[in-house]
Amino acid sequence: MKTNDMIIQFTAKIVFFIIFFFAIHIFLAGHYTPGGGFVGGLLASSAIVLLVLAFDIKTVRTVIPVNYTTLIGIGLLLALATAAFPMFKGDPFFTHYFDYFTLPLIGKTSLHTAMLFDTGVFLVVVGVTMTIIQTIGEDE
Amino acid sequence: MIHTLLLVALALFSLSIAITLYRVIKGPTMPDRAIALDTIGVNLLSAIAIVSIVLQTKAYLEAILILGILAFIGTIAFTKYIERGVVIERKSDR
Questions:
Q1: Per-residue three-class SS string for B2-65
Q2: Would residue B92 count as lying in a domain?
């Protein structure tokens, strides 16, 4: 059956970037405002789900060539590395460090190693959600 | 004054949600129910905005945007299921 999905596909192309940048904003603002790795990951995967709904699953797989099961592994490894790194310096497990840096274009910024742990959570949530949806979506 | 006005608006939004819930339960066809659920999502979003004004906090603004995004994606999934019988297509014929 020849179908014509022009409006939904054009809308998805624009709204995908809005949702994805909003997910990145929520992920980065999680230390001081509501949000964080979990909600950011769910929003990023919902942006990809919107693409999967508008197009089909093979097109999205060629557009975003990410193996989501390895994404889960990378996220878990990042979280574990962040937690285990202080043990090599003589501090207890899960000790976090922060300091103030002067970055170009942004200025004085406080960078915290909890951010790396949150990145691990983000990657695991995106990987798990997209693995579930891809596994249920394709029944070959 | 403004506080009672906000409470009246909140009551009207909940009344609107109740009326739309009648359409969800009673609605003769599935598109009626999908549109009623979308309307419930939008009304809920407005109710959250009014609650955040009443509580004088900015903490709910992300929740408003997320609820809008989720209502949009949910409605698209419902309509694709109603029209095609499948939510995620394997390969389109293009």
A1: HHHHHHHHHHHHHHHHHHHHHHHHHCCCHHHHHHHHHHHHHHHHHHHHHHHHHCCCCCCHHHHH
A2: no
Q: Does B62 touch chain A (CB under 8 A)?
A: yes
- B80 touches A at CB < 8 Å: yes
DSSP code of B66? Answer: H
Q: Give me the pLDDT at residue A96, please.
A: 85
> pTM for the complete prediction?
0.87
Q: Check A43 against B80: CB less than 8 A apart.
A: no
User: Is residue B46, in this structure, part of any structural domain at all?
Assistant: yes
Number of domains composing chain B: 1
Question: Quick check: is B52 in a domain?
Answer: yes
**Token pair in block for residue A58:** 């093979």
Domain that holds residue B65: 1-11+40-85
- B32-66: pLDDT as tens digits: 999 999 999 999 999 999 999 999 998 899 999 99
Residue B93 lies in a domain: no
